[in-house]
Amino acid sequence: MSGRQDGSPMNERRARISREISERTGITEALIERLVRRFYDRVRADPVLGPIFAERITHWEPHLQQMFAFWSSVALLTGRYHGRPMPKHAPLPVSAEHFDRWLTLFEETARELCTPEAAAHFAERARNIAQSLEMGVAQHRGILLAPGERLGDGAILSPEPATR
Ligand code: HEM
């Protein structure tokens, strides 16, 4: 973690960008903290996702702190997060249904706590990251997903044919 907040032009520029996003969307560090805490309360109570987390996370507070930094970096471009999510997710026993459930709970929580604009800002980023994590999980199993394809239990789920 660098965590250094000197007055360099780079840091000033980053701070200005974060402030602009915050003013436009209403997203603040305090809102991120509320969102993350409530989201993981739901994840832990969820029959599909709860057991996967329970097996891997015993101390929740450090994970939550890491997720505050992650969402601060993703939503406000603060650069607070320095981890690498892909290696942590690639070996998980998950498929499309887990990512869909994760996104449903996350978006529900965001809609409850945020303005529509902030909820959309979070949801768009969450979907993109979830998609790339799902591709990473697939690749870890030797499966290359084409655009629109989803990861089934060990197999590929083909995209639905377009309905007209
Ligand atoms: C199938 C759905 C998901 C499951 C079951 C899952 C599970 C987990 C678990 C168990 C960890 C802790 C890993 C460890 O410390 O060993 C973790 C960490 C993390 N997850 Fe997920 N996750 C899911 C989806 C997502 C999505 C969609 C995002 C982002 C939008 C995300 C972001 C993160 C981040 C940033 C970390 C911290 C990684 C680090 O720096 O250590 N996860 N996840």
- CATH class bucket of the domain at 28-141: Mainly Alpha
CATH superfamily of the domain at 28-141: Globins
How much beta, percentage-wise? under 5%
How would you characterize the largest beta sheet?
2 strands, antiparallel
Helix-strand category: mainly alpha
Mean pLDDT: 93
Strand order of the largest sheet: 1-2
| Shape type | globular
What are the distinct ligands in this entry? Answer: protoporphyrin IX containing FE
Overall number of strands: 2
Intertermini distance: 51 Å
Number of helical regions: 7
Percent helix? 55-70%
Show unreliable segments.
none
In the CATH classification, which architecture of the domain at 28-141 applies? Orthogonal Bundle
What is the chain-wise order of helices and strands? HHHHHHHEE
Using the CA coordinates, give the radius of gyration. 17 Å
Q: Look up the CATH topology of the domain at 28-141.
A: Globin-like
Protein name: Group III truncated hemoglobin
Keywords: Heme, Iron, Metal-binding, Transport
InterPro entries: Globin-like_sf, Globin/Proto, Hemoglobin_trunc
Pfam families: Bac_globin
